[in-house]
């Protein structure tokens, strides 16, 4: 099995937050890969002449790692959360016969208009800071924008008292510790992500190329990655789908973790 990292996430994060615990490693050999641009893998922060990258580039490199370095000819499953889900959607179209199953969690086969506005806003903040002499000056703004989208307003109305607004804003401003150049590289990759590009930008045609059995998990109130593109693809595929509807939004993975894990385990073990 292959587990992929989210936007800004690292393989260490997958272990630290326990998200890989859903995989029974007594049954499956688990491979965890750091995506390009996360500061651990090849990234602008550790390669001065780092080129623009795409989600497709990430997946192509992962395929080369598995087949050429690890001598793995096929996978039982590929899975990932958020940008990891985007990589998973790319996997099932770029290498459709390589895996039997695929699981996406709050991911997307292509960004909706709202997603593009959100990510472009963050990318523009970094670009403007870089033009002014220091891209890292954008970290506070990028952090606040992310915090706006990770949960819903209703979540904060219930869980963030007005008396804590100052500390809440401060945490958002100081919560991004990664390089802004790395952040920009992954934002750019997500903005260009679209699995229909090989099929004349026809998502129906792209769906016909997918051979893996899929489980797509979304939250209707996700403000970070709009769920409709994944739901549309699920309908075209007749794929298994878990639709959550929580104030947690994109962070439904933490609020509904047990329910998500149960669905994943059932999907992986089903015949």
Mean pLDDT: 97
**Overall tally of domains:** 2
Order of helices and strands: EHEHEHEHHHHHHEHEHH
Sum up the overall morphology in one term: globular
What is the top-level CATH class of the largest domain? Alpha Beta
Question: Unreliable segments (pLDDT under 50, ≥5 consecutive)?
Answer: none
Q: What's the total helix number? A: 12
User: What summary fits the major beta sheet?
Assistant: 6 strands, parallel
| Relative strand content | 5-15%
Assigned CATH architecture of the largest domain: 3-Layer(aba) Sandwich
Helix/strand structural class? alpha/beta
Q: Which fold name corresponds to the CATH topology of the largest domain?
A: Rossmann fold
Physical arrangement of strands within the biggest beta sheet:
2-1-3-4-5-6
CATH level-4 homologous superfamily of the largest domain: Alpha/Beta hydrolase fold, catalytic domain
Q: Helix share of residues?
A: 40-55%
First-last Cα distance: 16 Å
What is the total tally of β strands? Answer: 6
